[in-house]
Design brief:
Helix 1 crosses helix 4 (79-128) and helix 2 packs across helix 4. The two termini are 17 Å apart. The protein is built from four helices and no strands. With 143 residues, it is mainly alpha-helical. The longest helix is centred in the last third of the chain and has 50 residues, at 79-128.
Length: 143
């Protein structure tokens, strides 16, 4: 969401951002089983706790970006930031499984998926009109 303005021009940006998040989520879900992490393991207590913590963290990141919408918009406009973040999330789970084994990896994959779920929930709130645009969350603040 990254503190977008309230014009209709932000709709393509939201679709792009949602598509990038979906790609990262699909990569995480597709890579877990071949690396020895059954998808059911992502529903274990420790994995769900990590997912919940990271969902809250995603909301906190969005709040931080909403507090500085011009800075967030400028940073997110850089393709390296968008694609780098997507690749970091998509590769983070497989890297955690490879380095930490299936148990630690499943917690990492669940945490990453939880963060994406937090983002998707906020996005759904903004797109549906249930939440105002992030750039308006803190009033008319300037960077």
């Amino acid at each position: 969401m990254t503190g977008r303005n309230t014009t209709d021009a932000s709709a393509p940006d939201r679709r792009r951002d949602a598509a990038l998040a979906l790609v990262a989520a699909a990569a995480l879900l597709a890579s877990a089983p071949p690396l020895g992490v059954p998808l059911g393991r992502l529903l274990a207590r420790d994995a769900l706790a990590a997912a919940g913590v990271d969902a809250v963290a995603a909301v906190c990141v969005e709040l931080a970006m909403a507090a500085r919408p011009d800075t967030a918009r400028r940073l997110w406009a850089d393709r390296r930031v968008r694609w780098g973040g997507t690749l970091l999330v998509a590769a983070g789970g497989p890297a955690a499984v490879t380095l930490g084994g299936p148990r630690a990896g499943s917690v990492a994959v669940a945490a990453l998926l939880g963060g994406l779920c937090g983002y998707f929930l906020l996005l759904a709130g903004v797109v549906s009109g249930a939440l105002p645009e992030p750039a308006t969350w803190f009033g008319d603040r300037e960077d």
